[in-house]
Amino acid sequence: MRIKRAGTIGVAGAGILGVLALTTGCAADTKASGGGDDKVVLAEPSWVGATANAAVVKKLLEDELDVKVEAKQMDEPVAFDALNSGKADAILEDWHGVPKKEKLYVDKKKTVVSGGDLGVVGHIGWFVPKYWADKHPDAVKDFKKLNKYYKDFKTSESGDLGHFIGAAPSYSQHDKELIKNFDMKFKHIPSGAEAAQLKELKRLYDAKKPFLTYWWEPQWMNEKIDMVEVKLPKHTPGCEEPAAKAKCGYETNQLEKFMNADFAKGNSKAAQFIKNFHWSTKDQNEVAGMIAGQKMDPEDAAAKWIKENKPKWEKWIPKK
């Protein structure tokens, strides 16, 4: 998909929000000595990009480093608490969606440290389908102009207002507050999960119907549908805090890894691997597309990518 920002066009990337990689703290002695890990737990957020990352990391840790791996679902707030307590070792893809916990654990307590960037750039915004944007370019250039066309977006759920398709509740967002603070004639209706949101957008897109939605990059579906970003007020540091007073859009993030400080210092092969793990939006999108688009088993999708991309992942394996 080619996503058009207001005034520019960018090629969109892969599957959203990211993956969290975690390990239990029961193997502290072997990690501290630089030896192997008894077990690594990969925490998967609820989006397919997270599944893609976890599948590749799990496959390589098991096959190349002989590390036992278990994948579990875990959202960012819980993951940061786990990093602090030592129950988790690393989060591979952080969207900086829990700034208060980052400040507490990274800056103040120093129980969590940066593990470097993932290589994937994340962006969130408001999007409409290209076929609607082409007919209403004024609304794309200025989000307030959407009020002129709110009736285009009315549904049985939104009543007399336009329907704003919100993200799953666990995602970083302040759209409901933006709608209220700018007196937008829209009703914010959250999606239950990423899969439900994607299914609804594809249905509307295939029917050539208008829709306004919270959307993000990387996201594998961007290869299937053309959408245009609506220009929101420029993001500045702290402009969305508190959310109740938010009057800005979203920042563009270099997605970052964070690690439990003791685990990082222990310098085990698993810790080194996580520090080295660095792939592109295109790579993530390729695996996510196989999982969600082609309905492949995550392990099979990971195995296929690994087989075809040895020069990339060989660099992640710690030298003996």
Can you tell me the overall shape?
globular
**Average pLDDT over all residues:** 86
Q: Which stretches are low in confidence, meaning pLDDT under 50 for 5 or more residues running?
A: 1-35
Rg, alpha carbons: 20 Å
Structural class: alpha/beta
* Largest beta-sheet characterization: 7 strands, mixed
- What is the terminal-to-terminal distance? 41 Å
Beta-strand percent range: 15-25%
Number of helices: 13
Number of strands: 12
Comma- or semicolon-separated keywords:
320 residues, alpha/beta, 12 strands, globular
Describe the fold and architecture.
It is built from 13 helices and twelve strands. Strands 6, 7, 8, 9, 10, 11 and 12 form a seven-stranded mixed beta sheet that branches.
List the helices and strands and how they pair.
Layout: E1 2-5, E2 8-11, E3 20-22, H1 28-32, E4 40-44, H2 48-65, E5 69-73, H3 76-85, E6 90-94, H4 99-108, E7 112-129, H5 130-133, H6 137-141, E8 162-166, H7 175-181, E9 186-190, H8 194-206, E10 212-217, E11 227-230, E12 253-260, H9 261-266, H10 269-276, H11 281-293, H12 298-308, H13 310-313
Parallel strand pairs: 4-5, 8-9, 8-10
Antiparallel strand pairs: 1-2, 3-4, 6-12, 7-10, 7-11, 7-12
